[in-house]
Write a structure and sequence with these properties.
The chain is of the alpha+beta class. It is about 25% helix and about 30% strand. A six-stranded antiparallel sheet has the order 1-4-5-6-3-2. It starts with a strand and ends in a 5-residue tail after the last strand.
């Protein structure tokens, strides 16, 4: 598993590895004040469709991440709670986070 960072979203931003990250998919501070697990993907192939500086994915809530480390049963129980928060309309989305300065 890639290195995972637990962070609280504030003003639609998180700080990871000295970078302030924002998500283009979030505009209304929907996740502010909540703690999530983030996984950075760096050094991507420059020909990929992602930013050459890399990107960071919101993996899920801190609670779900910690449950995944305990057991499969704990993880499966936590999935329903994450869905209510991250997919209230029933559609699960990937939220990618990019450096704030490049997010224009």
């Amino acid at each position: 598993m890639k290195k995972t960072y637990i962070r609280t979203v504030r003003n639609n931003e998180v700080r990871i590895l000295a970078h302030v990250l924002v998500s283009k998919e979030l505009n209304n501070h929907e996740l502010d004040g909540k703690r999530f697990a983030f996984m950075p993907y760096r050094n991507l192939d420059k020909t990929s469709s992602f930013d050459a500086n890399g990107l960071t994915a919101l993996w899920g809530t801190e609670k779900l991440y910690r449950a995944s480390l305990e057991s499969e049963d704990a993880y499966l129980k936590g999935c329903e709670e994450d869905r209510k928060l991250l997919a209230p309309d029933g559609i699960i989305r990937w939220y990618f986070w990019h450096d704030k300065v490049t997010n224009k």
